[in-house]
Amino acid sequence: MPAWIGRATDANTPASQPFAVSDQGNAAGFLFGYPLTAPSRPNMNNKILWVVRTPRDGQALIITARHMGASRGVVRVQLPADSGPGEIYPSIIDVPAPGCWHFTLQWRHASATVDLRYTARD
Fold first, then answer.
1. pLDDT above 90 (res 53)
2. DSSP assignment of 19-83, as one string?
3. Which run of H or of E encompasses 7?
4. Which among 11, 21, 91, 103 has most CB atoms closer than 10 A?
């Protein structure tokens, strides 16, 4: 786990959770709903705690998720910068179909991309 994550979460890193780091190394998503499923399970949400490396300065996190290999299937979410401690954005992100999803994250003057797999719900 990159050292900046501990600083960005004010040492409240959920280290026991699976996580993914962005391609740029400036954002991470902790997967509290692991494995992520489509559709979501009735007893567990697709909860992702996003941590960003640079200060949010009160700016929202804008997420666009696209199903890889498909021309349709776009999910857009805007999360307020109202959680703490640190540079975090809690979210529940449901997608309409299982598969690999390409996430684009934008906050303040930064952006990041990360791919996450959603499995078919049993």
1. yes
2. EEE-TTSSEEEEETTPSPEESPBTTB--EEEEEESS--TTPPEEEEEEETT-SS-EEEEEE-S--
3. helix 3-8
4. 103
Cis omega (within 30 of 0) for bond into 39: yes
Average pLDDT over residues 53-76: 92
Residue 63 CB contacts under 8 Å (≥ 6 apart), including other chains: 50, 75, 76, 77, 78, 79, 91, 93, 103, 104, 105, 106
In this model, does residue 69 exceed pLDDT 90?
no
What value does the mean pLDDT take over residues 17-44? 95
pTM given for the model: 0.94
Peptide bond into 35 cis (omega under 30): yes
Look up residue 105 and give its two tokens: 């994250």
List, in order of start, the domains of the chain with CATH numbers. 3-120 (2.60.40.10)
